[in-house]
Amino acid sequence: MTRECHVQFCESLRAKFPGSTYQTNVHFPTDINLLFDAMRKVVTLTAELSERHGMSDWRQHAYNVRHLKRLMRAAQNKKRSRAKSEEQQAKRKASIEEAHQTYLDAAQRYLDKARNTLVQLEQQGFVSQLEIALKIEIEGFMKHAIRQIDQTKRRVILGEVIPHAEKVFSIFEPHTEWICKGKAGVPVELGVKVCVLEDQYQFILHHQVMEKKTDDQVAVSMVVEAKKALSGFERLQLR
């Protein structure tokens, strides 16, 4: 005959909130390379949708993408002048603005062409769910392109400072945030913040992804939810 022994641990859990960042798989964002990301998808997807309807308007879509990329590189390669002469600085500034404006104008032309194509295709009618899904996807990338054209013009041509809240740091993973870590060698990370509730033994009790939030905004709800999940532990103390 065996006797079962039940041992009850009365030690309270002491929890803490070590902050961490989940890095998303994105390239370093700039106004003009985010615009290229959006326009590349607008051009290639519009060409695919056109081909399904037997339209040849976008038969040079690969060239169109290369054209946009060359203009983007030309704008990227324009560096701010270190010359002390006001005349030289003014020339360099004008050169930078001209390269960016040329890029923006080309992007706008392709954007207008894609918009006209969608109107024509809609008049013909979409015959499958796939075509409808492609149209919706194209329109989503168009919205990204319109925003990046506007922000690039405001920043480079008009000299405005774009508010942080208006910025997007990835076209494909728009939840990506610019997170200032303040660490030596890694001052900034691109990803999403994760709040982790951890006990004194380094076991994870609860976690939450914080989109545009901070630890203090989720701390109370994290503790409440952890207590519900760990109903056997009545004493859950923060440290």
Total strands: the figure is 6
Oligomer: single chain
Number of helices: 5
Structural class: alpha+beta
Mean of pLDDT: 80
Report the biggest beta sheet as strand number plus sense, adding barrel if it closes. 4 strands, antiparallel
Helix and strand pattern: EEHHHHEEEHE
Q: What gyration radius follows from the Cα positions, in whole Å?
A: 26 Å
Low-confidence stretches: 1-10
Distance between the termini: 45 Å
Tell me what portion of residues adopts beta-strand conformation. Answer: 15-25%
Helix content: 40-55%
Shape: flat
Blueprint (SSEs and pairs):
Elements: E1 13-15, E2 19-23, H1 31-52, H2 61-76, H3 86-124, H4 129-157, E3 177-183, E4 186-198, E5 204-210, H5 215-229, E6 236-238
Parallel strand pairs: 1-6
Antiparallel strand pairs: 2-4, 3-4, 4-5
Helix pairs in contact: 1-2, 1-3, 1-4, 2-3, 3-4
Structural features, described:
The chain is α+β, with helices and mostly antiparallel strands and 239 residues long. The protein has five helices and six strands, in the order E-E-H-H-H-H-E-E-E-H-E. It has helices at 31-52, 61-76, 86-124, 129-157, 215-229; strands at 13-15, 19-23, 177-183, 186-198, 204-210, 236-238. Strands 2, 3, 4 and 5 form a four-stranded antiparallel β-sheet that branches. The two termini are 45 Å apart. The model is unreliable at 1-10 (pLDDT under 50).
